[in-house]
Amino acid sequence: xxxxxxxxxxxxxxxxxxxxxYREIINARVNGVYDNEMQLKIEESIFATTDLSRTVNPxxxxxxxxxxxxxxxxxxxxxxxxxxxxxxxxHFFSSGYQKLVLKLLxxxxxxxxxxxxxxSIIERLYxxxxxxxxxxxxxxxxxxVEYSKAVLIKILNEVFAEETSYKDQIIHxxxxxxx
Length: 179
Known about the structure:
The chain has helices at residues 8-30, 36-48, 58-62, 70-88, 95-107, 119-130, 134-159, 164-178. It has 179 residues and is mainly alpha-helical. The model is unreliable at 36-62 (pLDDT under 50).
């Protein structure tokens, strides 16, 4: 049972202790220090599988929604976004793209000085490529938001596990703020 809070000073001391624990857990997760229980569960799941066709590979472990490796999870999300962006680019050396550039140069031939292509050509080509960035970047941000919310709520549950008398109220309020 947690100690009773009888004064405002006791409340502040308890509050600062909880915030300190919360920060320590977040810093530990970001710096790669995880609970031994979690690491034991991962190791057991890897070594428990004896069938070679059913072995757990690192990508399966990294996609676990309870994975506490924050930096690793964020890196994987960035990597997926980078691949989507790379695949969405036009192949600039293709004959189709070359024809498009030549067509735009021809359309703006009377507008620009000879041997100095118009800025509007570059702008049109840039905007066409830029529009392809929006969806993968929005997906990355949404993925970050969802993962961050899940991690913060899990950490809140770990931090407030001992103080059961007011745990539910604080977690509910903080969850409302996070979500």
